[in-house]
Amino acid sequence: MKRICILLIAVALAAGTVGCGLGGPEYDLTIASTAGGSVTTPGENTFSYHEGTVVDLDAEANEGYQFGNWIGDVSTIVDTDDATTTITMNGDYSIMANFALEIRDWHDLDAIRDNSGGTYLLMNNLNSTTLGYGELASPTANEGKGWQPTGNTFGNDEFVGSFDGQSYEIRDLFISRPGETCVGLFGVVGETGVVENLGVVNSSVNGGINVGGLVGANLGTVSNSYATGNMTASLTCCVGGLIGWTVGIVNNSYSTGTVTGDRCVGGLVGHNGGTDFAATVDGSYSTGTVTGSEYVGGLVGFNTEGCTVSNSYSTSNVTGQDAVGGLVGYNHDGTVTDSFWDTETSEQPTSDGGTGKNTTEMQDITTFSGASWSIVAVANPSIRNISYTWNIVDDDTYPFLSWEPVS
User: Which helix (H) or strand (E) element contains residue 343?
Assistant: First the structure.
């Protein structure tokens, strides 16, 4: 009997399992992987294990890829972000190793359009000296039109994958497409699309409708990202420093620069929301200059019914003719909470939502802590306390996001 037990334990260990859960029901574990790598332990197939068995998992990426995460039925995986981990069998599970394609130059960035549902990691800054800039993103690229937005139409061409900038920047982006819709580094981010941890710096973006420094139209999620430069909508509506039109989620992001258009013009977002969408702008801010005709706001031009702006602020200088506000130009039965604008820098005494403060008050931590912001004072801008969403040098700076790059 002892020999039989020893043999069973040896077989279990050889199969990549740990533990004594050799009785009770059996469950199936189905394992697969996305393009860019494979699961080496226990392999890719369907395997049967007794309840309580701890199964070793090991995934390996191909050249040019990195392991991203485990997806699927991952509730009992110890660490979904680790290529080497374990899963405990308490039911039938189907899991997948997700691999991310590395983006190192403009050619890699351009190739995203060939797989709009993939997972991508930016591995370094891209600028005017990076391979592929001249033919893909410069003022002479594409017959003077510059960059062709990734996912530039609604429907099958939306970007529905995941793009993690890993705190790197895409610089010197040039786009001149004044007659086109949905113009930005990304044209349309679909409902399942995610863009995060990315900076678009020193950009020049000119489009027709739905124009933004990062995204033209957002149905998904944009977080921990920023854009600087000049953004212009040459036709009727919707231009923002970061996003032209969003019906998704925008959080912990900012924009600075010059934003120019006609209707629905905002320092961060031109138009927040649409019919049957609960769009949100949260924990974000804008600076710079915003100029338009109607529905012009320092942060958001037009905020729609059922949509929310919260825990945000603007110091943008704002100029317009009708429905103009220091924070929000026109709030059409939406919600604006715990948000502020600088009445001095904006040169706007009113806003359709938010609370106006002078510059001194906008640099006083009590303005924001009193609104229950996650904010803490630090000694100088080069010191960050990432335990809080916001940091501020009290009585010296405006609030800044704790993840922001140190200038």
Answer: helix 343-346
Question: What's the predicted TM-score (pTM) here?
Answer: 0.91
**Residues 260, 237 share a domain:** yes
The answer on 357 and 367 residing in a single domain is no
**Tokens coding 393:** 């040098």
Instruction: Say how many C-beta atoms besides its own lie within 10 A of residue 374's C-beta.
Output: 13
Task: Please tell me whether residues 288 and 354 are part of one structural domain.
Answer: yes
Domain boundary among 52, 71, 98: 98
Do 143 and 290 lie in one domain? The reply is: yes
Q: How many domains does the chain have?
A: 3
Residue span of the structural domain in which 262 resides: 104-361
Q: Provide φ and ψ at 34, rounded to 5°.
A: -80, 175
Please indicate, yes or no, whether residues 347 and 250 belong to a single structural domain of this protein.
yes
Cβ contacts of residue 264 below 8 Å, gap of 6+? 237, 238, 239, 245, 270, 271, 292, 294, 295, 301, 302, 329
Tens place of pLDDT per residue across the chain (407 aa): 444 343 333 334 444 444 444 568 999 999 999 999 999 999 999 999 999 999 999 999 999 999 999 999 999 999 999 999 999 999 999 999 999 999 999 999 999 999 999 999 999 999 999 999 999 999 999 999 999 999 988 888 999 999 999 999 999 999 999 999 999 999 999 999 999 999 999 999 999 999 999 999 999 999 999 999 999 999 989 999 999 999 999 999 999 999 999 999 999 999 999 877 889 999 999 999 999 999 999 999 999 999 999 999 999 999 999 999 999 999 999 999 999 999 999 999 999 999 999 999 999 999 999 999 999 999 999 999 999 999 999 999 999 999 999 87
CA distance 239 to 92: 48
Nearest to 289 by CA among 236, 241, 339: 241
CA distance 219 to 250: 10
